[in-house]
Amino acid sequence: MSEDLIYITPSDVKDFLYCPYIMYLKKVLGVDEPLTELIKEGREAYELQRQRSKRRKTLLGLKKIKPDNIWFSVKLYSKKYRIYGVADAIYKEGGKYSILEIKYGEYRGRLSKDHFYQAMSYAMMFEEEYYKPVYKITVYYLKDNIMVSRRITQYHKKHWLNIIKDIWNIVDGVYIPSPIDMGGKCRVCFYKKYCYK
Ligand code: SF4
Predict the structure, then answer these.
(1) Does ligand 1 lie within 6 Å of residue 180's CB atom?
(2) Is the shortest distance between the CB of 5 and ligand 1 below 6 Å?
(3) Which atom of ligand 1 is the closest one to the Cα of 190?
(4) Does the beta carbon of 39 sit less than 6 angstroms from any atom of ligand 1?
(5) CA 187 – ligand 1 centroid, Å
């Protein structure tokens, strides 16, 4: 069994929330989306932000957040939920830890569920590894220069756990989700050629 099948990643959480059938295609049938230009551009933009942050006192140059500390590219993993990943950044402000997720794609007018729960994965891993509570999730949409934050509640944690349980049920072959025609979402989905509808 490959490493990929032993652990899941925060990107899997994002994909699952986009469409559960993607999880079946990726983790059971082994179909994976190749690196797109957008992903490559996003990685370059992230590296630039990381370099710049060494000279800055504010978070990504935005005046409203002046963290006491910020750590970039933080490797995290959870033995309990079998998930690993590298958080874009974790920052500490007023003694509280928060997760920073940097998105290169366009802002969709709100903090989307898939982006939020992807970042929640880092929060849950951080709490398990470091025994410190994570206060909020901040997502920064680079192209639009928009930063959105949301406090983490017990409800979010419970919901995240249900998502993880569902993903593992698919990966472990407990059930196969059905591809559902989701109109616009399906039209722009890389996996559409694998959905026999
Ligand atoms: S094409 Fe539609 S149903 Fe198929 S994986 Fe993508 S989003 Fe899901």
Answers:
(1) yes
(2) no
(3) 6
(4) no
(5) 8
pLDDT in tens, 67-125: 888 898 899 999 999 999 999 999 999 999 999 998 887 788 889 999 999 999 999 99
* CA 86 to centroid of chain Cα atoms: 9
Annotation: CATH topology of 3-194: Lambda Exonuclease; Chain A (3.90.320)
Q: Which residues of the chain have pLDDT under 70?
A: 1-5, 37-39, 42, 45-46, 50, 53-64, 196-197
Q: Where are the domains of the chain?
A: 3-194
CA-nearest of 31, 2, 16 to 168 is 16
* Long-range contacts, stretch 37-43, CB < 8 angstroms, 24+ apart: 38/104, 38/105, 39/104, 41/104, 42/102, 42/103, 42/104, 42/105, 42/142
Q: Atom 7 (ligand 1): residue with closest C-alpha?
A: 186
**Model pTM above 0.85:** yes
pLDDT of residue 179: 87
